[in-house]
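Dear colleague,

As promised, here are the two records you asked about, laid out in our usual form so they can be pasted straight into your sheet.

NAME FIELD: protein one
SEQUENCE, THEN STRUCTURE:
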Amino acid sequence: MGISFTVLSSGSTGNATVVRNEDTTLLIDAGLSAKRIDELLKERDLSGEELDGILVTHEHSDHVKGLGAMARKYNLPVYANEKTWFAISNAVGQIPDDNRRILETGATREFESLRVESFGISHDAAEPVGYSFYDGAEKLSVATDLGYVSDKVKQAISDADVLVLEANHDVEMLRMGRYPWNIKRRILSDIGHLSNEMAGAILSELLTGRTKRTYLAHLSRDHNMMELAKLTVRGAMEDRGCFYKDSEFRLCDTYYDRPTPWDKVSES
């Protein structure tokens, strides 16, 4: 079977992704209400009873809004590093000690035949992380909420068959937007969010022929549009000498209001 995934929702209003293989199904973040997550799961022919656990990237509400409710409703173990657990403890309500699992930054955990590797990222949270998933030779990496991409992050997500990467904002749209300057400054900082241009620059470094698809994720509804994001990312790649045919590599959409189709990592 290999790795399959669907991005249930992506953006500032809520984030959740499902990654599964033949014997494990994991939810990455639960940034919407439990009711809404259940609805999105149903759209992809899944139910909460089929989940084996929840991985948390960081404590911001658009990533943990429904975490406590989902964990209690389906008696799910929740995995996060210690600093993130401390940061979310008051926000997610009571979770039984047996279901509060520690997955430290940089650690690897085996979920049957699905291997999960945590890696640290730069964002204004207690100890934010991204995740890479492995099944045999297959690799899927998920990296959003990045102020910038460090060499360690590049190493962690390099050679992924499929990558879910942040392309949060168009810089000029953000600068001209309605947010107060202190919020704009935070978003543009090294602990903020990755712009379209920066996402393209990173992809131009990472594309080695193995990565077949990149899903552009966590787009701002106020300061970005998917077609603009794809155009800017492609342009930034071409400016750096990285040219490709759509048959060799594709930029794929994510949505804030509906899930992406199931995607098999092994598919070309």
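NAME FIELD: protein two
SEQUENCE, THEN STRUCTURE:
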Amino acid sequence: MIRVLLAEDMHMVRGALIALLNLEPDIEVVAEVSTGDKIVPGARQHKPDVCVIDIDLPILDGLTAAMTIRETMPNVRTLMLTSLGRPGTLRKALAARVDGFLLKDAPPTELADAIRRVAAGERVVDSQLALAAWDRGECPLTDRELEVLRLAADGADPADIATALSLSAGTVRNYLTTIMTKLNGRNKVDAIRIAEEAGWI
């Protein structure tokens, strides 16, 4: 019997997933939580084989919880669920060394199969998302350009960025122009969106 902890903040979705998984003859949901901060304590208490975790959870995000599980309970496997089919989300999940990554709109049979495969030691990644991440390629920005864009994404204006990085405001504006050109962004906001979706910032 594969013991599962399910972390999902939407009550209706969580209830439906539990009902579906408990229909499987070899899977048992032994614990359910609705916030990310309860995942690690729940895993310690119930000792699941697999934690099925929604990436976007209140209080503590799913990836941070998954990384903590990997560091403190290496025998517990992690399978991430997300409604955001963005290559950047997959890159972040792989960087966190999760064992599986599945879109929430996948058929229920795929979820049960993914749980079995992850429990058996395999790494499971949604194939369409993996292709999209592969197609996106490497980040074209330099480390300095990424620093500038991260600060811009946090709401800093060129003067603030210049102060933070010990640059002139003109140099920062030049960096932002170069970034927009490299990313084919219509403007700064568009460039930030492109970089975020690709998982570069």
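A couple of things worth noting about protein two: The chain has ten helices and six strands. The chain has a mean pLDDT of 89.

Best,
R.
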